[in-house]
Amino acid sequence: MTAAMQSTAMPTAEQHGLKAHSDGAGSFVPVQTRSERFRSVKVADFEPVTGREHEWKLSPVAAFADLTGGELDGSRFEIEATDVSGVDVSWIGRDDARIGAAGTPEERASANAWSTFGEALLVKVTGEDEKVATITRSGLGSSPRAAHTVIEAAPYSRALVVLRGTGDARLTENVEILVGEGAQLTVVSLQEWTDESVHLASHFARIGRDAKLKHIVVSLGGKVVRLNPSTHLAEQGGDVEALGLYFSDAGQHLEQQVFVHHDAPNTRSRVTYKGALQGEGARSVWIGDVLIGNAAVGTDSYEQNRNLVLTDGTRADSVPNLEIETGDIAGAGHASATGRFDDEQLFYLMARGITEDEARRLVVRGFLVEIVQQIGSPELEARLIAALEAELQGS
């Protein structure tokens, strides 16, 4: 057989295109899912923030560069705590075993706070009776600060803990929430900062066997508020309700990146965030990530985000995501909607003698109050409804 005949009878791999391509070889592959994100408690392990990173691309990073990369004051600060039996508030050192038990920073601002804080504020909940405790931070000032808080609910304990921020602040912080077996804990994070304040927060929650956490974020004040709650349903029967309420005015940026990790059998999660926007430059960001791990059989999960646009010149970003690693689940779903007033609702109210302005306030109040009414404290609910009414006076 000649060389020419051999070439015809036995085609080479190159003739069929079976050779390695160099296109894209060694190129960077971006993180595709929330579960793949890098984590570290050391700020030096993270690259400087540019705004092009997946976790920062919707955030006004120039407004808080001092919190992501600058020096922070991590010293103890003044707090005001209600005196309630079964809720003890104290300070603990960085070497306490509870620190780091709920989670690890996924981004530079969180790691900067973790690397800097001197002592952590501990809120310890015990006792099976219902109780309400409020911890208020109001004197943080305008210098960049770091903080770390641990909220620990003992097994079978019950409580509602309100973590409230008022006054001036430039704060980056981490909040760890440990919910023991059979405990039922509600944590309300209430942002009522002044108009020029900036608050970056990462909340990490670990939920024990047959325990339930209701986590509620209420963001009303502050120029930039970015609060990202992550919940780890680590043991069988764990349950989380993650609720959020925000009202963004002109020039205000309110952001939430929610992560729920189902990591054990027969766990349940419900995520509902609602927001309203009014005024030129009002901005909201909501990203909802749910991971159902391969061991989380019987998972029941649903997340939703609803935004009500009250004026022109606003922007609402809403991105729900589901990552499912097992098909043996009870259910999983998500929904997202952004829209203006319902004209039929307005017409119905105005046809009964209600003015257009009052009708609009009633529609917005009805839209948002659903979240407020799930807090479980009549006094706090009434105060927040009054605060919403005050926000609406400008609509």
From TrEMBL:
PANTHER family associated with the record: PROTEIN ABCI7, CHLOROPLASTIC
Family: Belongs to the iron-sulfur cluster assembly SufBD family.
A single GO BP: iron-sulfur cluster assembly
SUPFAM superfamilies assigned to the protein according to its UniProt record, in alphabetical order: Stabilizer of iron transporter SufD (SSF101960)
UniProt source species: Agromyces protaetiae
Domain of life of the organism encoding this protein: Bacteria
Protein name: Fe-S cluster assembly protein SufD
Gene name per UniProt: sufD
Pfam families referenced in this protein's UniProt entry, alphabetically: SUFBD_core
Disordered: region residues: 1-26
Comp. bias regions, Polar residues: 1-10
Annotated SUF system FeS cluster assembly SufBD core domain residues: 146-367
